[in-house]
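To: structure subgroup
Subject: Chain for Friday's discussion

All,

I'm putting the inputs and outputs inline so they're searchable in the archive.
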Amino acid sequence: MTESIGVVGLGLVGAALAELLITRGYRVVGCDIDPAKNAVLATRGGAAVDTPAEVAARCDRIILSLMTTNIVRHVVEGEKGILSASRPPACIIDTTTGDPVETAALAERLATRGVAYLDATISGSSEQIRRRVGTFMVGGAPETFALHRDLLDVFSDFVFHLGAAGSGSRAKLASNLVLGLNRLVLAEGLVFAERLGLDLSTFLDVLKNSPAYSTAMDVKGRKMIEGDFTPVSRVRQHLKDVSLILEYARRCGQELPLSAAHHDLLAHAVAVGDGDLDNAAVIQEVRRRAIHQPQVGFE
């Protein structure tokens, strides 16, 4: 009998995960606060319901793909949430980039209800997830990880168990710090090359074949050059992540001067209306900060 898997949160990442499950022959029961996203799931072969409780009533395993830890708590423990169903699920796999301490606390509360929990954060855009090249960083009990590894393997060949619940969230913060700065450095370098009068397409090829290379060039380079900011990841979501990174750095007693500058740039980009654009749109903010300076001329 084909298993039904729940997916709560059908944004860019949740929709990609649901599509992979459908492709592998699972039945997907999903819900989102946006009716349009529910409608899209239905057109792709999934079943859309109205509440997380309805998802839990039909699925033993549920994947969460949400924006913040507070939303996760509401979806799991709030009115019409997962735990309000007559029968709780066997396992919740949470892909949300959330607060590691709160994530671990949720895992403990769920354990008292007999619900296993994995925080399975993802490094990679929705496009990369669809191609099964995202990296999954998983926290939770080893036996829970082993029992539900089959579901994680649907999504990627790059799945890492990092320790107890909360470990996936901690790894995601550190990973996003590096990833976000790589992306910002690429944007800054392209604008610098542009203002020096270089052809950006050729310069991008140079970068890809130099010691400066990073995978950000493969994923975001053409989007930056062509001004294609159709979202596969969003500026406002990364601003949320960098805010959380800075909060945990404060708790750890570490200064993050580059991430602080990154946060300032992202916050301004959101303030001027770029929040729902792809993360490649950071190049627009870099350009805005350079626009009042004369471009260098060379003879």
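Points worth raising on Friday:
The beta strands are 4-8, 27-31, 47-48, 61-64, 91-94, 116-123, 135-139, 158-163.
Residues 167-195 form the longest helix (29 residues).

D.
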